[in-house]
Amino acid sequence: MKKAGIDPAPRRSGPTWRQFLTAQAKTMPASDFFTVDTAPAENVVRAGQSAWRVPAVEGSRGAAGWPFMLLRLTYLAVTNAFAALRLLPMSDRDKDVEILALRHQITVLERQLGGERVRLAPEDRAFLAALLTSLPREVLGRVRLLVRPDTVLRWHRDLVKRRHARTCRPKRAGRPPTVRSIRVLILRLVSENPSWGYRRVHGELSSLGIKVAPSTVWEILKREGIDPAPERASTTWADFLRSQADALLGCDFIETVTLNGQRQYILAVVEHATRRVRVLGTTAHPTAAWVAQAIKNLVMDLQDADARARFLIRDRDGRFPTLMDEILADAGVQTVLTGVRIPRMNAIMERWVQSCRHELLDRCLLWNQRHLHHALREYEDYYNRHRAHQALAQAAPLRASPHSDHRSWTASRPHRTPARPARRSPA
User: Fold this and answer.
1) DSSP β-ladder status, 42-47 and 35-38
2) How far apart are CA 31 and CA 389, in angstroms?
3) Of 68, 260, 262, 356, which is most buried, counting CB atoms within 10 Å of its CB?
4) In DSSP terms, which residues pair with 43 in a beta bridge?
5) Strands across the sheet containing 334-337
């Protein structure tokens, strides 16, 4: 079909204006009532007292050209309204003669233009579309125009689309935002299930009857800075400590020197879940018997508090005797040794050591062991009941924050007093 010069089906659906004009040329009378004015920018076809300007270049478009186009369209409507009033006193014979003259002038204009297309301004298109769209399609096909009847109908469809687009424009652009409760649920699912990707989260939301696109879940995770599932699936040491916080304890020695020149050793234990600190005692000679007695006192305190500690993290300090691990094993607590020169494995305990030095040992003049022991008891009570902790939403281990769901350590676990041996001081 291409080699034979046959056009595609949309172009063969109806006769062209050239074919239509050729078929109607024999029935049109000759007339010399026609003048053509040639201007640099446009051709002016004058018929009687009216003039039809055909721009050589298409009119301005965009938002800046709309006011000018509306002004010209209003001018065209007013001038043609007066032209319609001029036709009222004319007889049908006079109108038929004028119509035949105008049709012949259009034929001459098309013959002079040759194969060049006539370019109409947007206001001319709007006026012709509004004027001719009321005619039936078969009548419109017999009207002599410079464009095809399908073109006039397309102009009318464009006008309707533009009007509909202006009246139905939403108040805010883009898709409506996702409901906050759905965003919170997505973030909660991802935080509690690090191995879930956005497709898995979308599946869980669908099972709950929540209609959200997978791309919406992906955009929410990206906006919150959450990495993809493969990068979140790996478990770090910090994640392990956080997930097993209820069963972990941290233990360490602190060295300090009092004003009398004596070196003192402080043994303390911290609970990972509640951040509660227990100062087990101070001594100038941390012997195996002293450490063992301090650990026995710790085990009895944990049993009184119904604690669920199963692991105790400590370093490889030689001051920790083997008897200490045996006492803890009998109580169901396993000792976990940190790596060589890896203090971050016991980071929570090391952080408390830093706080104790900055807030107490480096600020107070401690005379002797008795004075040090008294200051440590006061600091322990302050740390557990008053000092705010970022990990607990600004609450304290033994004081819940009014703006958080954290509860007091003593209120969340009932106390019981089983029969046990009397506690002895490790000193």
Assistant:
1) antiparallel
2) 101
3) 356
4) 38, 54
5) 277-283, 263-271, 248-257, 311-314, 334-337
Cβ neighbour number for residue 129 with a 10 Å cutoff: 19
pLDDT at 99 (0 to 100): 72
User: Which residue is listed with tokens 């769901």?
Assistant: 405
What residue spans of 278-359 are helical by DSSP H? 288-304, 322-330, 347-356
Residue recorded with tokens 């595609």: 8
The β-bridge relationship of strands 248-257 and 311-314 is parallel
The string of pLDDT tens digits covering residues 112-143 is 777 777 777 777 777 777 777 667 767 766 67
CB atoms within 10 A of CB 394: 13
Coil, helix or strand at residue 19: helix
User: Looking at beta carbons, which pairs linking 261-269 to residues 24 or more positions away fall under 8 Å?
Assistant: 262/368, 262/369, 264/369, 264/372, 265/319, 266/356, 266/372, 266/376, 267/291, 267/294, 268/349, 268/352, 268/353, 268/356, 269/298, 269/312
Burial of 372 (0-12, 13-18, 19+ CB in 10 A): buried
Q: Give the residue with greater pLDDT, 393 vs 8.
A: 393
Instruction: List the structure tokens of 361.
Output: 């040992």
Return the structure tokens found at 210: 């929540």
Mean pLDDT, the chain, whole residue set:
76
Distance CA 271, CA 341 (A): 22
DSSP strands (E only) in 17-68: 35-38, 42-47, 50-55
Report the alpha-carbon distance of residue 302 to residue 296 in Å, rounded: 10
Residue 362 neighbours by CB distance under 10 Å = 9
CA angle 323/383/306 to nearest 5° reads 50
